Amino acid sequence: MPRLDPPAEFEQLVLLAVLRLGDGAYAVPIRDEIQTRTGRAPARGAVYATLERLEQKRYLESWLGEPVAQRGGRPRRYYRLRPAAARALEESRTALQRMWQGLEPPVRET
Amino acid sequence: MKPEQILRRFLPIALSESVVGDLEEERAALGKGRLWLWARSLEVALGYAWNLGPRPERPRIDQPRGDGLMETLLRNARYGVRVLLRAPAFTFVAVLTLALGIGANAAVFSIVNALLIRPLPLPGSDRLVSVLGVDKDGQRQYLSIPDFEDLRAQARLVDGSPASCRRARTSPAAPSLSASARASCPTTSSKWSGCSP
Predict the structure, then answer these.
(1) Cis peptide bond prior to A106, omega within 30° of 0
(2) What is the pTM for the complete model shown?
(3) A103 burial type by CB count under 10 A (0-12 exposed, 13-18 middle, 19+ buried)
(4) Does B22 touch chain A if contact means CB atoms closer than 8 Å?
(5) How far is CA B33 from CA A36, A71, A76, B5, in A?
(6) B60 chain-A contacts, CB cut-off 8 A
(7) Of the spans A73-77, B43-47, B81-85, which averages the highest pLDDT?
């Protein structure tokens, strides 16, 4: 299996938000989740672009839900992690933990 | 332009539909108006374009590149026709402008072509010279027929000497030359072109 590009920082945030939201992960709550947990309000366009890119990288898969009257009869596009995403997230976390070993915040310039 | 049209222009069609739904859902939850929806659509479109969206996979060498036999060209042509039909007044003005422009250009080119570009309908027209005489006042004048006959008989560098004849002017300034030319114009000989009695 070809090795995928490791997810960048914002991509990891999106993947983790999808993981947290479970079956209800679509763009609106994904953005809210990132905003709530990080205090950063990502641009909507950046969220959509990142979701598309992660799907292209085969980290995510998506499907359309049922039409919702509240949305003018338009369906939601739900997202779910693929196994490669879970592996990539674990690898990133492990790498970060190893790099942090022996260091404690706050970080001072050396 | 409607918010849906903005998004469809920048986002993949499969994605734009659900994005419009997301924005409608947020608008309803926040109690915002159509202006909010329009502004957010523009924001999403620009944000998406700024982040470039998904990058297309590189085509493999063994895969054919591009579309089929001019599919894109034909699709664009069909789209162009539809756009023109949707705006008949604009189409009429555009076609009229083109027709006038092309017509004027063709007319000017016809004149320039006839006068400057197209060679004369004579063999060796690039070697054609015009021989005129000079009267006692230094004014250029047409030759009289006897002068022309002399020139033709004596010239060594001239290869054939057709002549054209003009009706004599009856200007009082040059009465003798005019009289001479008029008198010299034959009325029946076929070797003079353009002469008429």
Answers:
(1) yes
(2) 0.52
(3) exposed
(4) yes
(5) 25, 14, 21, 18
(6) none
(7) A73-77
B22, with CB counted inside 10 A (0-12, 13-18, 19+), is buried
Q: How far apart are the first and last CA of chain B?
A: 77
Q: What is the pLDDT of residue B65?
A: 62
Is residue B2 less than 8 Å (CB to CB) from chain A?
A: no
Spatial separation of the C-alpha atoms in residues B148 and B181, rounded to whole Å: 11
Taking one residue from A and the other from B, the number of pairs with CB-CB distance under 8 angstroms is 81
Minimum CA–CA partner of A26 in chain B: B22
Q: Which site among A10, A28, A74 would you substitute to test the B interface, given the most B Cβ atoms closer than 10 Å to its Cβ?
A: A74
Angle at B151 (CA atoms; ends B146, B154), nearest 5 degrees? 125
Which tokens is B39 given? 């502004």
ipTM confidence score: 0.83
- Give the pair of three-digit tokens for residue A17: 């938000």
